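Materials and Methods. Structural model of Lipase. The 415-residue sequence of Lipase from Anopheles melas was retrieved and submitted for structure prediction as follows.
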Amino acid sequence: MVVSNRCWALLALVASIATVAQASTIRDVLAYRAGDGPQPTDISKLTAEIIVNDGYPVEEHQVTTADGYVLTMFRIPGGPGNPAREGKNVAFIQHGLLCSSADWVILGPGKALAYMLVDAGYDVWLGNARGNTNSRRHIFHDPDARNTDFWDFSWHEIGYFDLPAMIDYALQYTGQTSLQYAGHSQGTTSFFIMTSLRPEYNERIRSMHALAPVAFMSNLRSPFVRAFAPFVDQIDWLMRMLGVNEFLPSSDMMTLGGQMLCQDEARFQEVCANVLFLIGGFNSPQLNRTMLPTILANTPAGASVNQLVHYAQGYNSGRFRQFDYGLTLNLIRYGSIRPPDYPLDRVTAPVALHYGDNDWLAAVSDVRQLHSSIRNPIGLFRVSDPNWNHLDFTWGIDADSLLYRRVISFMDRYN
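The predicted structure was written out as tokens:
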């Protein structure tokens, strides 16, 4: 059998992903060498530890979705200059793909969106989608078992099940009837799924702030996505054959690698930076290299392979639609050979779309198409830095002055 170079490249890519996904953590290796067997790694407290170290109170809350996933949320009810009290306006923030709630506190007091919202008087809730390091539990399925059903989801289920469960919990716990929402990347994708397929949730949103909104994707420039998009069906099949369902799980290996290779004075620090730039766009002045070890201790936080496959399908089709299972399964699930589009005309919550010119994953033209597809847009808001990229929305040095102050100002208007 003759295998083309492109097929060999595909096999190498999948093999590399499989190796990463199945690699033992450093703790596992040390325990094995000591004859004590594997020791599972639990880094679910990293977000809470950061918040406590920064001098803010934090609460950890669990909610179970209708399909059995146990999700962790972190609440910051007050701060050093704004103590916790009942009746505060609620702000809910949702992370992007391969990320976690840690994104919203990494920049530190006075800079991170979560802290700025707390200081502005908000009761802040940080969500975590199924499958990341904070939400790796299910009432039946084991995420670490081979061929487990735990990973049988994409961002469709995050929008349909996870967001409603977390929002309902936060509102019930605080006694509020509506809240402010901010999401980055996949945190915007899942929001549009929720409000289009479960439109009653529009009434629970005072205003939504989409940071690097991702729905339509046909004009994205990221070589990371464009490289595997043509092979998405084969990759999905091969990963399933290999029994690999989780993409880039976080581990001690990534944490130690970030500390050794990406810290200040390390030779490979610039390599670490350029890996991030290849995903989201180049903007060297906005990346604080000193933060790289902390970023890599929390990111990648794990995701289902189907989340990446679903995005690649969107790039290939040019449509914002449900997961494509193939002709036969589509007929069974949807009653048609193609998956249905998400009905964005049912999104009636006030939505502000914040975008960057140099965002390789949320192209300006795609954001404009999204803007024209929803019924109640607050507007399109460009970040003034012409090099602003996809990851600057969470880690950019000047995110506080170029973006977050504007977001909070809009939130205040809609209370």
